[in-house]
């Protein structure tokens, strides 16, 4: 399980990266069941990206794959073509959603939206890296 305190730390690291690149973002963290733990909308971030960030976190957890990698499997005619229409439209197939691991098992996910795919991915990676680093430190 990911605690609220851990989710806030993930978001803080992601928010710092968003500040660094100068792009306000929506950042969401989901638990092992894909349910929202917490979300922030940075000042100036798009309202329409709230839902997308939350859905990216859900998608990364629901399929235990980054949304960027899932998108590569879902082109027209591809193996997972149309997956984005599943789960009542909750599946997002563009960059910015990353599963979070503890001891090799997915325990949650981060979802980020508000910039380009490259920006969303970079911010999500910063949050995921924070979680991984804290998990490593806790296991020592």
TrEMBL record:
Signal peptide: none
SUPFAM superfamilies associated with the record: GlcG-like (SSF143744)
The name this protein goes by in its record: Uncharacterized conserved protein GlcG, DUF336 family
Organism: Bosea lupini
Source species taxonomy: Bacteria, Pseudomonadati, Pseudomonadota, Alphaproteobacteria, Hyphomicrobiales
């Amino acid at each position: 399980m990911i605690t609220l305190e851990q989710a806030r730390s993930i978001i803080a690291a992601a928010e710092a990266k968003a500040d660094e690149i100068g792009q306000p973002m929506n950042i969401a963290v989901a638990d092992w069941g894909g349910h929202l733990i917490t979300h922030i909308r940075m000042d100036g971030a798009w309202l329409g990206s709230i839902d997308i960030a939350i859905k990216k976190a859900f998608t990364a957890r629901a399929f235990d794959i980054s949304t960027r990698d899932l998108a590569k499997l879902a082109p027209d005619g591809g193996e997972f073509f149309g997956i984005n229409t599943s789960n009542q439209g909750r599946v997002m197939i563009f960059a910015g959603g990353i599963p979070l691991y503890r001891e090799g098992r997915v325990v949650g996910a981060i979802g980020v939206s508000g910039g380009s795919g490259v920006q969303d991915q970079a911010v999500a990676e910063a949050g995921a890296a924070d979680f991984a680093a804290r998990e490593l430190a806790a296991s020592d």
